[in-house]
Automatic annotation (TrEMBL), chains A, B:
InterPro entries: AcCoA_biotinCC, Biotin_BS, Biotin_Carboxyl_Carrier/Decarb, Biotin_lipoyl, Single_hybrid_motif. Signal peptide: none annotated. This protein is a component of the acetyl coenzyme A carboxylase complex; first, biotin carboxylase catalyzes the carboxylation of the carrier protein and then the transcarboxylase transfers the carboxyl group to form malonyl-CoA. The keyword Lipid metabolism applies. GO terms for molecular function: acetyl-CoA carboxylase activity. Pathway: Lipid metabolism; fatty acid biosynthesis. Residues 82-158 form the Lipoyl-binding domain. This is Biotin carboxyl carrier protein of acetyl-CoA carboxylase.
UniProtKB/TrEMBL annotation, chains C, D:
Keywords: ATP-binding, Ligase, Nucleotide-binding. This is biotin carboxylase. It comes from the Bacteria. It comes from Amycolatopsis rubida. It catalyses: N(6)-biotinyl-L-lysyl-[protein] + hydrogencarbonate + ATP = N(6)-carboxybiotinyl-L-lysyl-[protein] + ADP + phosphate + H(+). Its EC number is 6.3.4.14.
Amino acid sequence: MTDTGSVDAAVAELGAQAALETLVRSVVDIAGAAPQPPSRVSVRFGCASVEVEWPQGKPVVTGGDENPPPTVSPQPAAADDRRAVRAPLVGTFYRTPGPGESPFVEVGDLVAAGQQVAIIEAMKLMNIVEADTSGRVVEVLVADAEPVDFDQPLFLLAPAEGR
Amino acid sequence: MTDTGSVDAAVAELGAQAALETLVRSVVDIAGAAPQPPSRVSVRFGCASVEVEWPQGKPVVTGGDENPPPTVSPQPAAADDRRAVRAPLVGTFYRTPGPGESPFVEVGDLVAAGQQVAIIEAMKLMNIVEADTSGRVVEVLVADAEPVDFDQPLFLLAPAEGR
Amino acid sequence: MTGFDTVLVANRGEIALRVVRTCREMAIRSVVAYSTADRDSAAVRAADASVQIGPAAPQRSYNYAPAVIEAALRTGAQAVHPGYGFLSEDPDFAEICARNGLVFVGPAPEVMARLSDKALARTMMAEAGLPVLPGTGQPVTGRAEVVAAARRIGLPLIIKAAAGGGGRGMTVVRRPDQLLSAYRSTRAAARIGFGDDRVYLERYWERARHVEVQVLADGHGSVVHLGERDCSVQRRRQKLVEESPAPGLRPDVARRLAEYAVAGARSAGYTGAGTFEFLVDGDEVAFIEVNCRIQVEHPVTEARTGIDIVREQLTIAAGAPLSVRQEDVRPSGVAVECRVNAEDPDRDFAPCPGRLDEFVPPAGPFVRVDTGVHQGWRVPSEYDSLLAKVIVWAPDRAGALARMDSALREFRVSGPGVHTTVSLLRRVLADPEFRAARHTTSLLDPVRDEG
Amino acid sequence: MTGFDTVLVANRGEIALRVVRTCREMAIRSVVAYSTADRDSAAVRAADASVQIGPAAPQRSYNYAPAVIEAALRTGAQAVHPGYGFLSEDPDFAEICARNGLVFVGPAPEVMARLSDKALARTMMAEAGLPVLPGTGQPVTGRAEVVAAARRIGLPLIIKAAAGGGGRGMTVVRRPDQLLSAYRSTRAAARIGFGDDRVYLERYWERARHVEVQVLADGHGSVVHLGERDCSVQRRRQKLVEESPAPGLRPDVARRLAEYAVAGARSAGYTGAGTFEFLVDGDEVAFIEVNCRIQVEHPVTEARTGIDIVREQLTIAAGAPLSVRQEDVRPSGVAVECRVNAEDPDRDFAPCPGRLDEFVPPAGPFVRVDTGVHQGWRVPSEYDSLLAKVIVWAPDRAGALARMDSALREFRVSGPGVHTTVSLLRRVLADPEFRAARHTTSLLDPVRDEG
């Protein structure tokens, strides 16, 4: 038990015990804390996972899913600071107030929340599209006069400061 | 057994065994601590896994399945040392050679691989049930003259020595 | 066959998929207009194209005409199939379609406008020779007018809030001394409930059955009926079980109903698929209303006649004549439909949307299931709670009821918090009154009496 | 109605579920005997009870009579429904059932024994007045005998290995000078392939169609037919598409086939549901064989007649008379079935079992899907590769083919390594020969010629 291999093995074993004890405690905690007996509990830590199912249980409590790094990243969605300005209705997207005129906004422009950035025409009515947040235009996602669906991203804005 | 490769292998095997024991303990802990009898418990650590299912209240224990440890553990089913003697066909289970006679085996008996332990009657033919492994009878799972399905566990055997 | 290359399906759920299927068979390109809640729906998957027209809230998507029209125009659709509910019976929407060069799959806007005004429809149909329920037709005010109307109509009668619906705002009056207090309390309740205290009076039929006749009318003067459906099993005016033929209905009464429906459709200048609803009590019948759209229970009629009603709708809308003459329509056997809703019987049938971890509908000989959901789907809370329609056919009623019960037993639906009406439906199927076809619309909802 | 409380279903897959469904409708308790590979099958789930009779290998489970009988006796079953394949046409099994006091759902063992001997069946049917293919009937040996037989039969003819089957071990002879070399090579191939070099000769019909007639016969002397099915679209003798009525079949020929089938069933003392297979070329017809069981393609007939054939099987087996007389059978419209197999068209249609990550069969009006699999199921490799049968009905053939193509487009099947025959089926549906009903059994398998 003095060579490095067996030390590693021992450490691994200890790690396994600790990790699994944690997992089991989690499962038991979840099962006990749930308002009704759960039908399935699944907890995973790295390569270790514990999963419990109950027959015909009503609620489902799943702890962790496919690959959740539990302690590493506090903000899973924070990877991209950019925000989309989306289409408030289905219609045709126009970047300019009229034919031959210059676009409301261009890449690199700074826009304020509430500023008009485009028009969407639906049923021959012109609907103003406003930025719902301030920021710098980093990308125009739809070409002029193209049809857009409801909620389709039109522009990407980056935060005005910081970076 | 002096070169590092075989030492590593031995250690890995030891580690796997320890890990599996831990896994099994985890399952038992969960099953015991659960508010209701679970229908399935699955514990995994790295490549080793143990899974327990209780279909409709009747417990069936299976050790390891989908991803059998490829090189580490030579005995993926070693989670539980007990081995079941299973029904080789569908029929009626008899523990004795005939009415009023004493059973082929009793709990506590030591049986040898190939020894007759029961009869299954199907279509009025008496089929001999043999133990496919040696061991000590720790449990008789089916009452005399009860119907059994193909592959249904009939007896549990524990390893004859060790423990 | 039809002149349409592309049809916009302005609906969701099972009926959107239903329309997509017939379009596909007719080699018509289908485009489904959908809300964000229906992004992964079966109809969207099955359609040739789709347009996200708005958020989950129907008033900004399925009920929002500009978004629907925009989707139709953008995708080159020549026609809009409205399904049922949402914009399907909105004459203004039909009008907007026409103004935008789109064929609305349904009757002409002016026909729809007249028939959707219940008082006007009642008058029109009475003039066309259809019997109507004795009643005031219009709202009544003042004790003298109420007493005079009640004397003319006779007892029992029902006082209905003009703004009511879905079984709310109604009181049954059986004795003369209950009349005025019932009038006062119904008005008061209507004022509070609907902000509108107008009420009208109608004869109340104690043991009535709800029977409706399916008609098809083309733009070339042909009107045919496809037989009747009995929809008497209702819970709070929601149909649960529909069947055809109407069990226990005298053949001469069934024939009269069909003739009334054809005469009514003709006199109204109706085109498309439509349904004439009647109350029936013995050999007494009374027209109630016309539904100017495809109905949830149309598969019952399809199963008995072999006619694809959506195909006929599209054919008629494209200006072609009906594919069948009256003598070609030969309904056979018995068809029954059960509506399986995501509702909790233990919580007064509150809708219970949620994720469907398991959803395996029944199948097999003479079993059809129309559904817009699938395993893994999360039933949205914004729409009605219909999960699936189970339709069976058999040579006779006993066989059809056995088959239906068997199909309902086979249905596997589960998920966190998901409950269904399957057990209620199975209780109805086992009910002796229902089995003997002696049931009425009050089988599940004994009507509240005054006094 | 029937005397059975409990029926053992001795089969798997879609047909086991099919039988369970009818049992449930008839209030008969169903018990499914299953192998370890089918533990979680839809039939096991749907049945009232189930018995695990053996391992995946059929010779130790579905084909192992003692296990099946044991399961039946243990669960109190009075009858055994064998489905198709496995023990369904084994006269010994029917005999064992009888000896154990169990009703075998099928004809009497001695009838089955005679009809399953193809040479004997051919002789019996010829005696009953049915036309048979000119041929030797029995194996021939020696050049003189071969030449004499060929002279009597005429050309083209086909030399078949007695031990062959499934399209293997056959050679077509078109010119007299090919005869002896074909005889030698077929014998040699048969010796190597089957260890049995006996061959026989039969007239070869170049442009034949495979047409079969469904019959029902009870134990009280009633025999009715339910019309014919055309099963000419085959790949290596495996039926892919079946339809009814047989397209392009002259009505007088169809009538003759039906009469032959009824006469054949009568003369053989047949009881239960059975199928008489014929080859048809123009107005020439020839009896081939009788299938003494329910067939894969029976839903085609159910869709046109409204008759539940499994119900009739159970009714007849219980000793009751048929529920229908010949004059009650009035087939209508056109029904088509396509078999969707888990096979890889790019690897010569090798079966490709695997896990079905996605399995959403089509549905809708006049579409029926019979399947024994479900999403998440792992298709076992031990059994045939049938995933699902898609059956459609329509008033006419063009409508039925359009509906079938639409249904196949809707079918969603995927999983690691899973391929299906859907694309092949859609190619058949689009084939001009098939659409014009000019196709023959060699549509997909041009027959190998000698020389």
